Automatic annotation (TrEMBL):
Organism: Sulfurimonas crateris
Molecular function (Gene Ontology), one example: shikimate kinase activity
Keyword Iron appears in the UniProt entry: no
Record's subunit section: Monomer.
Pathway(s): Metabolic intermediate biosynthesis; chorismate biosynthesis; chorismate from D-erythrose 4-phosphate and phosphoenolpyruvate: step 5/7
Native organism taxonomy: Bacteria, Pseudomonadati, Campylobacterota, Epsilonproteobacteria, Campylobacterales
Catalytic activity: shikimate + ATP = 3-phosphoshikimate + ADP + H(+)
Protein name per Swiss-Prot or TrEMBL: Shikimate kinase
Cofactor requirements of the protein: Mg(2+)
EC number: 2.7.1.71
Pfam families documented for this protein: SKI (PF01202)
Gene3D superfamilies: P-loop containing nucleotide triphosphate hydrolases
Compartments in which it is found: Cytoplasm
Amino acid sequence: MKNIILVGFMGVGKGSVAREVIKISDYISIDTDDLIESMENRSVKKIFEQSGETYFRDLEKRVSLWLQNSVSNTLISTGGGFYKQENLKDIGIVVFLNSPFDKILKRIKSHPNAPKKLKKRPLLNDLKKAKELYKERLPQYMAVADIVIDVTDKSALECAKELLEKVKEHA
Ligand SMILES: Nc1ncnc2c1ncn2[C@@H]1O[C@H](COP(=O)(O)OP(=O)(O)O)[C@@H](O)[C@H]1O
Ligand SMILES: O=C(O)C1=C[C@@H](OP(=O)(O)O)[C@@H](O)[C@H](O)C1
């Protein structure tokens, strides 16, 4: 089994889909933000505040090299900016989860814990800037993807099933 690497904009559902995939397959999942938080023993939000974005991106680079050299048979969910790593294709099959910006925002806002979910993502604090970032990144996500899944109006389980089918076809 090759690694599957899940990319997509903040809040599109990378973590949620990963959690469903592991329920219905033999994959185990890891998340690049979780790895970084445990390496640093502080949250992504704190890393951005205390050490800045460049420092965070350097940690992503370190994680990407480790993934390429040391991880196999794994479903890897990533932070929204991780797709910029140059060795992405050497890590595994790249699956892009997509939905329009407004739909992603609506989902996050409808969660009972919405203020916390928005706060923990520093790049979502300014919604106008976040929308610009989405527009800028969309073609880049498309360019790097081996597989694209539109997650709009689908449950995380439906997305997980579609992902496994498409990965099988891709192999
Ligand atoms: N398919 C889905 N349908 C409805 N809500 C979803 C779906 N996937 C994720 N969500 C919700 O959207 C928010 C962001 O999901 P999350 O998995 O944390 O995204 P990411 O890991 O891409 O940042 C969460 O509140 C989650 O419950
Ligand atoms: O899009 C980005 O550049 C980021 C997305 C976040 O992850 P999620 O996509 O899980 O929110 C996190 O890695 C950090 O705040 C930067």
